[in-house]
Amino acid sequence: MAAPQMQFFAGKQLAGGYEVDALAAKLKAIGVVDGEPDIMAVDDDEELVAGRIKVKTLSGGVIDVDLEPTDLVGRIKERVEEQVGIPTEQQRLVFAGKLLADGKTVRESNVTAGTVIHLVLALRGGGRL
């Protein structure tokens, strides 16, 4: 007879009898970010729970941002400002060739864990020639 196994997920011990296959079916994405496991799971309603995205700058820098699916795109800009000091009003975020709208949620914008969003700066203009 095999010894009982202790199963853990996201640092918490699972209750006995939980099937590993059922757990695997709930995973949206799994990978390694900064040497740490990065798991994006879905709840029983198959909704995104949380995840980390990368914001890539024109200079080649990368900014890691942890998000909830209900966060607004504007929250990504706030995190970028916190980390690198670029004012939110000067930021434009592009994903899949489209400009992301500040008032939409991460979920509505189809942004999931592991997504790479490109940061471009708004050009100042309005001057006359």
TrEMBL record:
<protein>
    <recommendedName>
        <fullName>Ubiquitin-like domain-containing protein</fullName>
    </recommendedName>
</protein>
<dbReference type="InterPro" id="IPR000626">
    <property type="entry name" value="Ubiquitin-like_dom"/>
</dbReference>
<dbReference type="Pfam" id="PF00240">
    <property type="entry name" value="ubiquitin"/>
</dbReference>
<dbReference type="InterPro" id="IPR019956">
    <property type="entry name" value="Ubiquitin_dom"/>
</dbReference>
<dbReference type="GO" id="GO:0003729">
    <property type="term" value="F:mRNA binding"/>
</dbReference>
<keyword id="KW-1017">Isopeptide bond</keyword>
<dbReference type="InterPro" id="IPR019954">
    <property type="entry name" value="Ubiquitin_CS"/>
</dbReference>
<feature type="domain" description="Ubiquitin-like">
    <location>
        <begin position="51"/>
        <end position="126"/>
    </location>
</feature>
<dbReference type="InterPro" id="IPR050158">
    <property type="entry name" value="Ubiquitin_ubiquitin-like"/>
</dbReference>
<keyword id="KW-0832">Ubl conjugation</keyword>
<dbReference type="InterPro" id="IPR029071">
    <property type="entry name" value="Ubiquitin-like_domsf"/>
</dbReference>
